[in-house]
Design a protein that fits this description.
The complex is a heterotrimer.
Chain A (H helix, E strand, L loop, with lengths): L23 H17 L14 E6 L5 H12 L3 E6 L11 H9 L5 E6 L4 H8 L5 E7 L5 H15 L6 E5 L6 H12 L4 E5 L15 E3 L2 H5 L4 E4 L5 H4 L6 H8 L3 H4 L7 E3 L12 H4 L6 H20 L2
Parallel strand pairs in A: 1-2, 1-3, 3-4, 5-6, 5-8, 6-7, 8-9
Chain B lengths: L1 E11 L4 E10 L2 E5 H5 L4 E5 L4 E4 L1 E3 L15 H10 L2 E6 L10 H14 L3 E7 L12 H7 L3 E3 L8 H14 L3 E3 L4 H4 L4 E2 L2 H6 L3 E2 L2 H17 L3 E3 L5 H12 L4 E6 H5 L21 H13 L4 E3 L7 H4 L16 H11 L4 H6 L3 H7 L14 E11 L18 E11 L2 E5 L1
Parallel strand pairs in B: 1-4, 1-5, 6-7, 7-8, 8-9, 9-10, 10-13, 11-12, 13-14, 14-15
Antiparallel strand pairs in B: 1-2, 2-3, 5-16, 16-17, 17-18
Helix pairs in contact in B: 3-4, 8-9
Chain C lengths: L14 H15 L5 E5 L2 H13 L6 E3 L8 H4 L18 E9 L3 H11 L6 E9 L11 E5 L6 E7 L5 E7 L2
Helix pairs in contact in C: 1-2
Classes of the chains: A alpha/beta, B alpha/beta, C alpha/beta.
Chain lengths: ~325, ~425, ~170
């Protein structure tokens, strides 16, 4: 096993591929830098000149409007040039390999690649093959990782809970397929959150999930007891087709976040969701729109966090 | 012209002999040993240099990529790799393109191999037409063309009724069936062992039960039909236990494990190393330990390379999209020696797993140092280190998890049927 | 270099003494309705003190120039950026920009670039406690505490002691 591919020889962040194995001080540096950027987004001129002259290529092999848009906004607020590539439409369908696609873009003087791909590990492959001055940011790879989402989730928790000590965090839903869950679990572990819980039916909890440092619950009521933070995961329709669940209704009854399940958590618990939400499936509208919900602020924080990631990486 | 190989450490795995001596060969066979050999006349003398003289290795699974996959490797390059690795006999699976389901194809392959005058080739024929699992192949005709057994390679037969009939038909003629135990439904879509590493890396998993459930079904078919079954590439702790019980029960079964599964586990995937994408997948440390121990105690009969050359295009992909398989003909000896050393076995005992044991599965006379046995021999240095780099490999497949590693055990001379086919 | 009463034991000027002088200058010449903004970190401390002494109505603003530095591509992003806080509109205001030490002028250039991203001020005047020469850009202070010469191998900074007292400190550069 080679050294951590995310860090350069000086131990600085060269690529952001996963929160798994990302040193604590780098995680904190990103959160602290995001704080400073939060001020920028509140100004009249929401730009700073840090990435002026740099090209950020959004390489999305999996479609996404929301994540791609926030990365685009973040890059533009750093004064970078942004090029969006919906690769599904072009070279991939012509059978061009992943590495060939990247090599062609390198030849167009790219500085940063923001990559989303359906296969776990794709950004690692890309990072092994880019030139020394090029950087890769993982915008989501298969089920493996979504590090910027994990970071903005950490930022959100820190914002509302003022820290991480003594917290109980519950992650609910389709953990098996969730890169958001995996990244958040690694981040929470790195920052020393004592109690991390995953809640879901056995079909949606990956084997050996406890090895990630979590407690697994199939009883949502037990899992939510005295939780400080509840993170609801999106349930995709395909799960019903794959014999993992019988119906959305049964799922909502036993694993959806309803007002009467919410009271089992602490009185000042916050409710989070990476979006987009399936109202009435994993989360009831009254909860999503209610006083505990911080779902919209998550999106705002996401821009500052992505600005922090891009500006730290591009300067290394 | 007779050949006397003198001044070597003569090891015969089957009898356990391991002491200095001489071997006299002629007419493609072993004629005499030690004193008798020395006293023979009219023999060309070869100095063994104090190296180990042992039977050539017998590899039960090596893909030569012909016909059909010549862009990955050719018969020439892979036969060169075989003899460079000290492999003097090898069996090739039927998953060529087209698959080995026609006697004409098998015949042509055997002729091509014979003309190269390197290692002996034993083709394994397809159990079903085009490996599709619907219709039976002409097993008797294929056997006459040279097939030693019948197999589905890595393509499972979904319809158990067809599988049952195939076993019955093979049993009719006494043809061995070589199968890898994997339930297609449980394994579907999986690319790694369904455990902690797959969970951490977000890879779709293949549970151990995919192997153990399928193995249970296969063993039951053996009981019902009496077919001789050889299980290929065991990968789970559970399967080792099942094989132990099956042998105790007296079923006509044997099994092998790949050299990779005895040394590597899911941990070796690291940061998505596509060279560790294998079929069956690398499983947990506990599975690896059970396989290593199973091979030592004889529950698992032998070790093979499962040699599968994959071109760079096939491996430079995200883990789940990469083509499974590792190159291994040239690594079989050093990996076997490494395993034997870890288990504290003697050299003779270690080599048994790659010589006389696979010979027995194949039903051939080589793999032993006996008077009258074929003169398929190797001279090797059990201490010589090899720093493994891509250009050191003669195979066109450079896809190995051991790139950059230091392995020990180097073949210096290889003889097949008494002819020197490789020499350094 | 100024007289002995403005120097402390190590030969560095006494910050507390200079602050009074600076205050007098600003009070005498600053435009009515001026606002004050300090550059992190030493400039911000100094601005807070001046702001209090001068009794300026609007709250004091602070600027962190981490995102406007011209050496980002060589040094990367600063490890612990602070947050810029300008709690008033910059549009059409007379601004007194405050920093502890004026050297090459690059910090002030970055601060001005950042200020202009907040709006268009009527004017900007620079107040510094120490000017050590070595300018690389056409920037000068309107309000100045002391001029001092230092070797290029040294860095001069303002430090704030626990009780709030401000003092100069000399470090090795790099």
């Amino acid at each position: 096993m080679r050294g951590n591919p995310q860090l350069n020889r000086n131990g600085e962040l060269q690529h952001l591929l996963s929160l798994d194995g990302l040193p604590r001080d780098i995680v904190l540096q990103i959160l602290d830098t995001a704080e400073s950027f939060a001020g920028v987004t509140e100004r009249e001129v929401k730009k700073v000149p840090l990435l002026r002259g740099k090209s950020v290529f959004n390489l999305f092999f999996e479609p996404s409007t929301r994540t791609r848009t926030t990365f685009e906004i973040a890059a533009k607020r750093l004064s970078a040039d942004v090029i969006n590539l919906n690769v599904g439409a072009s070279s991939q369908t012509k059978g061009e390999s992943l590495l060939d696609t990247v090599a062609n873009l390198s030849a167009m003087q790219a500085d940063l690649f923001v990559v989303r791909h359906a296969s776990s590990g794709a950004p690692f492959l890309i990072a092994r093959h880019v030139r020394p001055h090029e950087h890769v940011v993982n915008a989501g790879d298969g089920r493996h990782a979504h590090p910027t989402q994990g970071l903005l989730d950490l930022y959100t928790i820190r914002h509302y809970k003022k820290g991480f000590s003594g917290l109980t965090v519950a992650i609910v839903g389709d953990v098996l397929h969730s890169r958001v869950a995996r990244s958040l679990i690694h981040g929470l572990g790195t920052l020393g959150v004592p109690e991390i819980r995953v809640i879901g039916p056995q079909t949606l909890l990956p084997p050996g999930v406890e090895s990630l440092g979590v407690r697994a619950f199939s009883d949502m009521r037990a899992g939510l007891a005295r939780a400080d933070v509840i993170v609801m995961l999106r349930l995709q329709n395909e799960r019903m087709g794959g014999a993992l669940l019988p119906s959305a209704q049964e799922f909502n009854k036993y694993y959806g976040l309803t007002p009467e399940k919410l009271v089992l958590a602490k009185a000042d618990a916050i409710v989070m969701h990476p979006g987009p939400m399936n109202r009435g499936v994993e989360i009831d509208s009254s909860v999503a729109d209610g006083p505990h919900s911080v779902i919209l602020p998550q999106v705002t924080f996401g821009i500052a966090v992505r600005m922090a990631v891009l500006s730290i990486i591009a300067g290394n | 012209m007779k050949l006397l190989i003198a001044n070597c450490r003569v090891v015969d795995p089957e009898s356990g002999r391991d002491k200095p001596g001489e071997v006299l060969i002629g007419d493609g066979r072993i004629l005499a040993l030690d004193a008798e050999a020395k006293s023979a006349t009219a023999a060309r003398r070869v100095d063994g240099g104090g190296l180990v003289l042992a039977p050539g290795l017998i590899d039960l699974s090596a893909r030569l990529r012909e016909p059909g996959f010549e862009y990955k490797a050719t018969l020439e390059s892979e036969m060169d790799a075989a003899v460079a690795g000290g492999v003097t006999s090898l069996a090739c699976p039927p998953d060529t393109d087209p698959p080995l389901d026609e006697p004409g194809l098998v015949d042509m392959l055997r002729r091509r191999a014979k003309a190269l005058e390197r290692a002996r080739l034993y083709p394994v024929g397809a159990l079903s037409v085009k490996l599709k699992g619907e219709a039976l192949t002409e097993m008797a005709e294929l056997a006459e063309a040279g097939c030693v057994a019948f197999s589905q390679a890595n393509t499972p037969i979904r319809d158990l009724r067809v599988l049952w009939r195939a076993f019955q038909y093979a049993a009719t003629f006494g043809f061995p069936v070589w199968m890898r135990a994997e339930d297609p439904w449980l394994a579907r879509g999986g690319v790694a062992h369904d455990g902690a590493i797959a969970t951490r890396l977000g890879l779709a998993g293949i549970p151990s039960s995919a192997e153990t459930i399928a193995l249970g079904a296969l063993l039951q078919l053996v009981r019902e039909t009496g077919a001789h079954l050889h299980l290929c590439r065991l990968s789970t702790l559970g399967a080792v236990g099942q094989m132990r019980a099956a042998k105790a029960e007296g079923l006509p079964v044997s099994c092998d494990v790949s050299a990779h599964h005895v040394h590597l586990s899911e941990m070796d995937i690291g940061y998505f190393d596509a060279n560790c994408r294998l079929e069956p997948p690398l499983r947990s440390q506990r599975d690896r330990e059970a396989l290593s121990r199973g091979l030592a105690e004889g529950t698992i009969d032998c070790m093979c390379s499962d040699h599968t050359p994959v071109d760079a295009d096939g491996k430079q992909l995200p883990f789940g999209e990469a083509e499974p398989g590792a190159t291994g003909l040239e690594l079989l000896l050093p990996l076997a020696l490494k395993w034997g050393q870890e288990r504290g076995l003697s050299l003779a005992d270690t080599l048994k797993r790659v010589t006389s044991a696979p010979a027995r599965v194949l039903g051939v006379a080589s793999g032993r140092l006996e008077i009258g046995a074929p003169a398929d021999l190797i001279l090797f240095d059990p201490q010589e280190p090899i720093h493994l780099t891509a250009d050191r490999l003669k195979s066109q497949g450079k896809n190995t998890p051991f790139l950059g590693h230091e392995l020990i055990g180097r073949v210096r001379t290889t003889l097949v049927a008494g002819n020197i086919v490789y020499q350094v | 270099m100024s007289g002995n009463d403005t120097a402390n034991a190590g030969g560095l000027p006494k910050a507390e003494t200079l602050i009074q002088g600076l205050c007098d200058q600003i009070k005498a010449h600053m435009a009515p309705g001026s606002v004050m903004i300090g550059i992190h970190t030493g400039g911000a401390w100094l601005a807070e003190r001046l702001h209090r002494e001068l009794g300026i109505a609007e709250p004091v603003g602070t600027l962190d120039i981490a995102f406007y530095r011209d050496d980002y591509h060589r040094q990367g992003l600063a490890r612990d950026p602070k947050r810029s806080q300008i709690p008033f509109s910059v549009e059409d205001r007379h601004i007194v920009l405050v920093d502890d030490v004026l050297y090459t002028g690059r910090t002030v250039r970055a601060a001005m670039n950042e200020l202009f991203d907040y709006g268009r001020p009527a004017s900007i005047s620079l107040a510094v406690l120490a000017d050590r020469g070595g300018r690389q850009l056409p920037i000068c202070a309107r309000y100045l505490g002391v001029q001092i010469e230092l070797p290029a191998s040294k860095r001069l900074r303002l430090k704030r002691k626990p009780a709030g007292e401000l003092a100069f400190e000399l470090h090795d550069a790099g």
